[in-house]
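Private note to self, pasted from the team thread so I don't lose it. Backbone tokens:
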């Protein structure tokens, strides 16, 4: 009642259970049960040594809505999409799926497509992922939401990469979970940082295996050994491993799967086959997969078998050459990182579609870059405690654009008052207010 009436605002600390019991004239067990019910309903949260407090209201604006207004004529590198020219044609795949539907239409109670599961299982085993049951979901985030909702409750702490995937950070907020940032370098999550988060009581950990968004980090063999050792001391923690880079990256998978008793590994087809083919293959331990399937049956029920058969056809016929696709993205990504390095600008992008560029001030850098005809994504979308940065998606860049873009970035990141710091930005063009969509 005090919370709903506003007498206990968000963030207000609540007294210990025994003190509440004495105040209300009830047993400590009754008071503890009341606190437990409030936690389950997302009204309060337990924050370790900081005690129990009223949970903050969900944010009214999601990180996904933080983006730059791109004026006409400006080259937009902010979207994070794959290159449409590298996506496979779908005519034959859709026709094959339609023929299979006519021969054996999927009805209520039909299981996931056998061919798709067989192809996915073979690929996972080839990459060293432990054997486990398989499930099909409507993309990575769909699977992550169901897994988290089946294991965690509002107020629970979860270790997230920082910087990390915008949609995941939004999901964590919506579920009422408490994000604990884990610093990421080019080799993936930093082991000491993960250890700190685990000692602090996180109940789940999310790791991107390769093509990390936004930094392009990829977990190396040596880093995987370190991370598995850290995770092995906390077998009860839920491990969620995102391998959305399968099919369009050229670095091998070094899985962490199996380092804890509860784990899942997810593979999405969105980047390799196209975002509208929203499908992910999920494997994990039997308990975690069972909970995922149970929640799926109570909601969407299943993923369209037309979609499943389409993806199975694309895999079976090798419709995408992952080596060629990875090489194409690599030429643009490595080319930009190299061009920036020659200008004294540090940038990150070991794998995937993006380049991450640390900056002193995001708004100033983005405004200056817009004035030079280029748009990028603000790092604020991806950061929890990490310092400011810009994210540039390289998937649509042409090789001949790399040097002009690097020149524009060098000018945009030049300190105010530095050599050349007047000129174009001294006209006032770069001093205009930066407008954020959704702000």
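Design output:
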């Amino acid at each position: 009642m005090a919370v709903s009436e506003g007498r206990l605002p968000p963030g207000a600390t609540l007294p210990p259970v025994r003190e509440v019991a004495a105040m209300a004239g009830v047993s400590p067990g009754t008071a503890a049960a009341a606190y437990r019910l409030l936690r389950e309903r997302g009204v309060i949260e337990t924050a370790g040594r900081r005690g129990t407090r009223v949970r903050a209201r969900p944010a009214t604006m999601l990180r996904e809505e933080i983006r730059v207004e791109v004026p006409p004529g400006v080259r937009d590198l902010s979207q994070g999409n794959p290159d449409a020219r590298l996506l496979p044609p779908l005519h034959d795949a859709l026709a094959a799926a339609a023929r299979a539907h006519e021969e054996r239409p999927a009805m209520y109670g039909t299981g996931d497509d056998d061919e798709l599961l067989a192809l996915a299982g073979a690929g996972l085993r080839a990459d060293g992922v432990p054997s486990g049951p398989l499930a099909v979901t409507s993309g990575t985030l769909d699977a992550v939401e169901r897994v988290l909702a089946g294991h965690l409750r509002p107020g629970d702490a979860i270790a997230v990469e920082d910087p990390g995937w915008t949609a995941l950070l939004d999901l964590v907020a919506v579920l009422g979970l408490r994000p604990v940032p884990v610093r990421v370098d080019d080799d993936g999550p930093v082991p000491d940082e993960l250890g700190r988060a685990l000692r602090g009581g996180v109940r789940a950990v999310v790791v991107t295996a390769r093509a990390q968004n936004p930094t392009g980090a990829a977990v190396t063999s040596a880093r995987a050994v370190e991370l598995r050792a850290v995770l092995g001391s906390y077998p009860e923690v839920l491990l969620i491993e995102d391998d959305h880079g399968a099919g369009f990256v050229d670095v091998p998978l070094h899985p962490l799967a199996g380092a804890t008793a509860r784990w899942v590994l997810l593979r999405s087809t969105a980047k390799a086959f196209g975002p509208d083919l929203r499908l992910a293959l999920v494997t994990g331990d039997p308990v975690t997969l069972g909970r995922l399937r149970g929640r799926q049956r109570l909601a969407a029920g299943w993923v369209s078998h037309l979609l499943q058969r389409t993806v199975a056809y694309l895999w079976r016929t090798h419709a995408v050459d992952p080596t060629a696709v990875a090489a194409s993205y690599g030429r643009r990504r490595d080319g930009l990182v190299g061009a920036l390095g020659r200008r004294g600008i540090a940038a990150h992008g070991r794998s995937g579609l993006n380049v991450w560029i640390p900056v002193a001030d995001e708004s100033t850098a983005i405004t200056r870059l817009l004035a030079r005809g280029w748009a990028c994504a603000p790092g604020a979308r991806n950061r929890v405690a990490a310092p400011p940065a810009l994210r540039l998606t390289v998937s649509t860049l042409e090789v001949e654009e790399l040097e002009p873009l690097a020149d524009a970035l060098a000018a945009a990141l030049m300190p105010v008052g530095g050599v050349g710091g007047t000129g174009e930005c001294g006209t006032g063009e770069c001093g205009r207010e930066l407008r954020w969509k959704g702000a």
